[in-house]
Amino acid sequence: MFSFRSLLAPRHPLRRFALLDEAGRCRAFRQSAQAPLGAGWIEVNEQRLAWLHQPLPASAHIDQLGTPARLGKALAA
Fold first, then answer.
1. How far apart (Å, rounded) are the C-alpha atoms in residues 16 and 47?
2. Is residue 70 part of a domain?
């Protein structure tokens, strides 16, 4: 019964995150439905192993439109 129920339940798509150190270099990747807890995790549009121990390109960052700080700026304008 559990397997049948899991077929009908909506699935959350996995999002991709990168862990950045203090210098802005990528230290790890993670895929999950929710953002990981802790500082340094940012959402990216893809994962490339070549990015490990390197600064992420600006094109890899996903613009966080739903963050409270950005919403506050939009409402103030």
1. 7
2. no
